[in-house]
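[job 0412] stage=fold_complex status=start
inputs:
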Amino acid sequence: MIELYTWGTPNGRKVSIMLEECGLEYDVHRIDIGKGDQFAPEFVAINPYSKIPAIVDPDGPGGRPLPLFESGAILIYLAEKTGRFLPASGAAKHVVLQWLMFQMGAVGPFFGQVHHFLRSAKEQVPYAIDRYVKEKDRIYGVLDRRLGEATHLAGDDYTIADIATYPWVARHEWHKTDLGRFPNVKRWFDALSERPAVRRGMAVPG
Ligand SMILES: N[C@@H](CCC(=O)N[C@@H](CS)C(=O)NCC(=O)O)C(=O)O
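[job 0412] stage=fold_complex status=done
writing structure:
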């Protein structure tokens, strides 16, 4: 049974969606980041950066327990463990990793900054809002062009790149984005929203 340390955020839900898609059994540990649970010494021992998500796989490589943090690293690990949602080798594997890194380096950090400056910042900072909203729209443009030429981000198949990106697009109301402006993203988002594993993963931690 994999131990999942998570909260109801896009980065946490990438991992619960993946666990659901792979049919792996897991125990959910609620880390309430609003209350500061992420700084508890037991959790810091698993993730020294004090952020969700993290997992502990008691049956890691060599039969030894493996603690892991960073959602992208966790998705790659679970994909390799199960042989699902990431080709084993070749160009197709690297295209998946490219779109996964685009999520990790662009979608997550920039959408996250938009959420912060629109919803959480103590004062409205027009320069920051303008900078991050512009970059967010640029990223949506990249996703929309890509999804205009391919069914999924890495091509025909649904992969960990889609699993990583979906929960961020699911927060489109938080970053005030009308998906009607990005019809290919909307087509992809609506299709993924129908997947039972996506629905179950998005409901974690409940
Ligand atoms: N790069 C990390 C980012 C994780 C992250 O930002 N987690 C947020 C929630 S989505 C968090 O735990 N925030 C609490 C904090 O910063 O103290 C990953 O992808 O796992």
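[job 0412] summary: DSSP finds eight helices and four strands in the chain.
[job 0412] exit 0
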